[in-house]
Amino acid sequence: TLSRFIPRIKLERQDSGILVAGRLTRSWSSYVSKKDDKCIQIEIRFKNDDPLVPQATSEPGGASLTPVVDLKPDIQELENLLKSLGPLPGEGSTEAIESPFARKIYTGKPISLDLVDANLKNVIRLLAEIVNMNIIIDQDVKGSVTLRVENVPWDQIFDMILKANDLGMEKHGNVIRVARKDKLRKELEEQEKLIEKRKDLIEKQAELSRKRRNMGPMETAYLVVNYGDIEKLKDQIDEAIKSDDGKIDVDTRTRTIIFTDYRPRIEEAKKLIAALDKPTDQVLLDAKIVEIARSYLKSLGVTWSFSYENQGNHRFRPHFEINTPVTTNTGILGLTWGLLKGQSAFNLDFMLKAGVNKSLAKIISAPKVHTMNNSEATISQGVDIPYKTLDEAGNTITEFKRAELRMTVTPIITPDGRVDMKISIKKDSPMTWEAGEEPPIRTSDIKTELLVDDGAVVVLGGILEKDESQTRSSVPGLASIPIFGNLFRNRSIQSENKELFIFIRPKIIELPSIHAMTENNNR
User: Fold this and answer.
1) Can you list the residues of the chain whose pLDDT is less than 50?
2) CB of 463 within 8 A of CB of 333?
3) I need a labelling partner for 363 at 20 to 30 A (CA). Which of 128, 159, 442, 477 fits?
4) Where does this protein chiefly localize (predicted)?
């Protein structure tokens, strides 16, 4: 029997399972363990000189057998011991039962209590009062408590009181509810059943909705697409709406989707096209390219006082204000930008024209360009410079080289109604050259991106130009006198620095769709 070799067996519950420990009455030499899904079998081999072990025997042919004692424990004896420990955590119950051997860390404030046959509810309320805890106790919680503790964490005392009276607790926010364990288990089971019923109801509703989509006879609808990509819309209907029995085709010539399916699905396709088949918004780019003399920047007066600094901070005062929170370092161009605040486009035109009338400014170009959302618009202005050169036969011919100011703008309308503009500027300036040579072109370019409000005016500055001119004058007759003729001749060199400013005003133009116009006409 089991007690012959292992007189005492100790079973100890641990977090990972049950530890079986015992002491052998004889010395052993080795062991072999075998494990399957349900149990672990251990075979212990004792030493040959042990009096309890039979001596080795010989098999026919001279082979020697070392006796092995198979210590298979008495199954019934072990089952009785295991039953005395109760079920394992998670077995046969809706919640895990904490192991009595597991150590739980308590962090509550230590308190001391000495109570004899105290009312259970009053003891729980006393603990709640001591630690300032919100607590609710069910009416069927009854019993008495006798305890004496010194400097024990309050949460440990509370835990032991619950265990001693077969109670449990659940938290709802900052409130703790105390009730009997069987009641909490029953409520948990009812909640799980209710959740399952809700899941079943949702599945049935989904199934009913699927059946309704496939009710009625098959119909054919001709869905006209005005603005969107007809192939993409067709694919969306095919993947999300069309049933297994439905058919879909496209007539590219008339931009029509031919959809055959059940009526509910056809109605879904119509709603999809009405939501997605909308015209792309357009942006009006109102630009002005203005050339202003450097001397004018400091002498415009009170109405439009314009000051220039090397850091690129520009201000129109008092009616115009350019706010430049960001300065863009742009190498050759030295481009800076700002936002024109406080004035309308009409006032801007008025002030620029006033400067032109006084010969203080020159409007080089004032183009207006419509472009689609997220589409590039190009504005350019320049001259073709003629120059003489020789062809392959040695003949003198005239060719032209282009020097221009080119600006490309790509507006992107954001969901909150602003305009994100990607701006690229290229400025060509011809340099002096000798006759018969190709004129050299100095090119400067810059790329930047700005986010502005709809209708706000963006100011780009820092494109510098220098114009030089020579003037010769003389007194006829006297200027030709040798030596003294220089007194009657005069040569002057004039140099003027100019700065080019570009004003851009993006304006979003929303086009109503055909569907919206039709609905408004029907009202």
Assistant:
1) 1, 49-75, 78, 82, 85-102, 298-335, 342
2) yes
3) 442
4) membrane
Tokens of 28: 């052993």
One-letter identity of residue 366: A
C-alpha span between 427 and 521 (Å, rounded): 50
Please tell me the distance from the alpha carbon of residue 52 to that of residue 33, in angstroms, as a whole number. 22
Rounded alpha-carbon distances, angstroms, from residue 339 to 120, 178, 217: 75, 66, 62
Q: Which domains does the chain have, with CATH numbers?
A: 2-43 (no CATH), 110-184 (3.55.50.30), 218-278 (3.30.1370.120), 300-354 (no CATH), 362-509 (no CATH)
DSSP letter, residue 485: G
Which ranges of 55-106 does DSSP label H, i.e. alpha helix? 75-85
Alpha-carbon 113 to chain mean position: 56
User: Is residue 167 a contact partner of residue 181, using CB atoms and an 8 Å limit?
Assistant: yes
Residue 72 has a pLDDT of 43
* The predicted structure's pLDDT at residue 206: 80
Name the β-bridge partners of 250: 257
| Length reported for the chain | 523
Residue 322 near residue 459, CB atoms below 8 Å: yes
Q: Which residues pair with 11 in a beta bridge?
A: 20
Is-contact 27 100, C-beta < 8 A? no
What is the per-residue pLDDT for 499? 72
pLDDT at 465: 62
Contact between 291 and 361 under an 8 Å Cβ cutoff? The reply is: yes
The string of pLDDT tens digits covering residues 424-445 is 888 887 776 666 677 777 777 7
